[in-house]
Predict the structure.
Amino acid sequence: MSIANDLLEINIEDELRNAYLDYAMSVIVGRALPDVRDGLKPVQRRVLYAMNEMGLTPGAAYKKCAGIVGEVMGNYHPHGDASIYDTLVRMAQPFNARYPLVQGQGNFGSVEGDGAAAMRYTEARLSPLALEMLADIDFDTVDFVPNYDNSKMQPSVLPGRFPNLLANGSTGIAVGMATNIPPHNLREVCDAVMLLIDNPNAGVEELMTAIKGPDFPSYGMILGARGIRDAYTTGRGTVVMQGKFEIEELAGGKFSIVITELPYQVNPSTLITQIADMVKDKKLPEITDIQNHSDRHGMRLYIELRRDSYPRKVVNYLLKHTPLRTNFSVNIVGLVDDGPRLLGLQDLLRSYLEHRQEVIVRRSNYELDRKRQRAHILEGLRIAIDFLDEVIQLIRASRSPEVARDGLMTRFGLSSAQAQAILDMMLRSLTGLEREKIEGEYRDVAMRIAYLEDLLCTPAKILAIVRQEMKDLRDKFGDDRRTKIIPLEADEIGEEDTIPVEQMVLTITRDNYIKRVPIDTYREQRRAGRGIIAMSTKEEDTVEHIFVATTHHRILFFTNKGKVYRLKTYEVPQSSRTSMGTNIINLIGIEPGEQITAAMPLAKEHEPGYVIMCTEKGVIKRTDLDALDEPRRGGLIAINLQDDDELKWVAHTDGARDVMIITRNGLTNRFEESDVRSMGRTAAGVRGIRLQGNDRVVSMVIVRDDAQLLCITHKGQGKRTPFTEYTRHHRGGKGVLTFRITDKSGPVVGAKAVTSEDKMLIVTEQGIIIRVKVGEISETKGRVTQGVKLINLESGDKVSTIALVPEKPAREEIPTAAPAPAGSPGGDGASAAEDEDNEEVEEVEELELE
């Protein structure tokens, strides 16, 4: 036959596919994945079995690991000494294995990432729990298979008296699949097995009353049970782990963060290095010192903070950007019937329970065979004792043991084994005491045979034995849970959670340049001081708006075109005091030609209330806040405007306030907010004040019963007047005089509702800013009076805008509505008509601008 006739034609794609599948299954079954029955990979199983064969039990002397590795490699696992020693070391490390199966002596590494010493220096022996894994292995409880060279037999699985796969967990990467099973508490696992025996239909929720969740050897915390439940139900889930820390107060008002526990397999040294790099990169400037005070008594990582830092914010940053909080991705994949399978908690426990039932059945059958053999022998011995004289005579008359055995078998109907046992009897067995012992042993053996036969016919009794074994293991080896499970689910740590709550001054120029600086940048000065430079501006640019907000405030920016945009304070880049800032077009989608004309900080999400808007021509509108407080980069329409009008002022109210509109020529009109009905977002407004000549609105103020009206002019004159001096009229009126305009004062530039405890920022067109106490501005009783100098202006400079510095970092509620002052409609004083400066109040129709 020619060689050509011996060749087979095959498809190379099919051959490669089949060959790779064979390789993949070999890796999956032979190396990477644990067996669900004993929770061990082949190399782990071989190490434990070899150590048991070497007699390295817990009471024996330790033996060099090099000898153990050599024994395993030579007889069972010919894949290199490194993998065997790494396996041995990992099973001995208490920070990796929840219940170590090997007791090590010497340097077996540390949680700091130090490796174990060379195998020639370390020694090991089995731990007491490892003996439970190997218990009854000599009683035909598991199948044995040939080793790699067919010179020895090795177990295909260990009897595994406790659920090692759950207790110690497992991790491995195969071809196309992986497993990652966390360790658990042995006491809880045993309780779960007993619960499943008592109630075979127990679901995940019921089993979780026994098994609370993973229990890591490194202690730490687990946040929430959702990921645990997912893992136990489907085999996959994400468990959020977090270290344990405390914030300690030091002398001098400083704080420190002390970390005493870390998530599973997080290296403390690596964590410290990572934090140090963050400090070096200016990401955590609050940290001044990092030290590792860990010792044999426990872990203690010490992080010292600056005096002015916010400890909780530093912690949030560490939780977000370091492994102080990390995830354990559970993927319960194990070998079931020599094939990989994704398992939930029920499947895993049932597979283990089936294995233990099989072990007990095989152990019982093994014992039953031995007991039956012994009973058979004892029955022959009893016959020999009953016919002792005849047996002795027959043996004496025989020429050889074979003739004697055949004679006994023929005369008394004995088997070969029984006859041989009679021949092997010693003379002492002929005494009365020995005869009684044989009878007693026969009765005991008969009873044991009856028990085993009944046991093998009754599955419930087999389960009872498994249950008792679980209870004994739990009582002997069970310990308290180390990892604490916090019921609350872990909230996503956003960027805001890592930013301290600080008061910031935000300034916006006419050309839309915005910046924020800490409030402490502007030191307090007395009234009529010269101020300091607030920012550098481009030529012909001036500061138009200034306000104070915390870093966590949401800010609604309103433009002259009637649109509103939303931004967080911390999203505005922090700048130096003299810098120009950032053009706001880089932060929000403002359109060409739009200018920021008003800003409204908001402290809480979904704050109730309304937004009052006022235009330069005195049009006013009221809208629900929720309609405007939406994040949209392109902005929202807040009000429809006439072509020659611009939106300039906004305020947040509770719907039951008084509103005051102040004009450039010193007129003001006060009316009830309820005079303005609530309108839709795209609606126009109604007239709030009737302007005369070239007059225009310069401010809108919400009346507060505990405050006064502060007005300031272009030339830095200001005065503080009680709101009771201003009577309530109707919207749309011409208003009353509030500031007598002179060449010395110049026109009114702005107004605010203030108290004597407030502090105020005054900004000039040249970028000078001064921070003064409102209490230093004298309160005037009359409406039409001159003010006092608030800032000493340079030649040609003018006041541009003013802002208040609130006492509290965040507004907590909208103040209650102010009562009607004396002299207002419905009050007890004089009527509006009796005020000499009161102009005729004229009611107008709503503007048809919608």
